[in-house]
Write a structure and sequence with these properties.
Helices cover about 70% and strands about 5% of the residues. The chain has about 270 residues and is mainly alpha-helical. The chain has one domain. The model has no long low-confidence stretch (mean pLDDT about 90).
């Protein structure tokens, strides 16, 4: 915690450490997983799943309780979000799919909730966890590159699936080898160009989200080191950071829609 005798480097290093678990010699161990590819960041997984359940609970309950009359404030807010996402899908995706709109809504709200955890003062939850013997706790799942890569790769797999489903193996292969230059001699060049473009999709999704939220988390940690000035500075940065939180959720959602729209298009 800030002011607990740690140097600034030790303080930031402590807060950047995930609570990890892995198997060693057949037994599960905690925080002794350096270099273990199969280590699990338990805190990131816990908060990601928890916030996913929060999203499902809130929207599921509202769907069951929605009225056809004059809606309340909360129902109005939920309907506004749903209509906003639906309109974004209609303007970008021109195919027919019952998956795209629910997926876009899920990604937007889930990422927003995970990003929102960044506004909680950095010491509060880790300090509370330390009281029950938990040495490390990172509460913002989107500052964990494993979480953002998992989401990006999931969208990438969906993109490949729909590309092959809509165009067939032959059509997808032609898209990789005969675009942008429709000549057999340009196949090697086209394949490299389109392959890089294809692989850049999960990278752009995951690294953009991770980088922006990780940078925001670092700034909150630096603010926490400023003694009596930390609360007003925290509030000022949080007010600005709200824009980043919403914008990053929106960008991830829109890029997902765009990539899946491209997968449905025939060239």
């Amino acid at each position: 915690m800030a002011g607990s005798g740690q140097t600034p480097g030790e303080y930031i290093g402590h807060h950047l450490q995930n609570l990890t678990a892995c198997k060693a010699d057949g037994n599960w161990v905690w925080n002794q997983c350096d270099g273990n590819f199969f280590a699990v960041n338990v805190d990131s997984m816990f908060f990601a799943v928890l916030l996913g359940l929060v999203f499902l609970t809130i929207f599921g309950r509202m769907a069951r309780r929605a009225t056809a009359g004059v809606p309340g404030r909360f129902q109005t807010a939920i309907e506004f979000i749903v209509e906003f996402v639906d309109q974004s899908v209609r303007e970008t995706f021109h195919g027919k799919s019952s998956l795209i709109a629910p997926l876009a809504l899920t990604l937007f709200i889930w990422i927003f909730l995970m990003n929102l955890m960044d506004l909680i003062p950095v010491d509060w939850l880790p300090w509370s966890a330390s009281l029950v013997g938990v040495p490390y706790l990172r509460v913002v799942p989107t500052t964990d590159v494993n979480i953002t890569f998992a989401m990006g790769i999931s969208v990438f797999i969906l993109t490949l699936f729909y590309s092959i489903k809509m165009k067939g193996i032959g059509g997808f292969t032609k898209e990789l080898t005969l675009t942008p230059f429709n000549h057999w001699a340009a196949i090697p060049f086209n394949f490299v160009l389109e392959g890089v473009s294809l692989l850049a999709k999960p990278l752009s999704l995951s690294l953009r989200l991770f980088g922006n939220l990780y940078a925001g988390e670092l700034i909150f940690m630096l603010i926490a080191l400023m003694g009596i000035w930390q609360m007003p500075l925290h509030l000022l940065w949080a007010a600005f950071h709200v824009l980043i939180i919403i914008l990053q959720a929106f960008i991830f959602m829109m890029l997902t829609i765009v990539y899946l729209a491209q997968a449905h298009e025939h060239h």
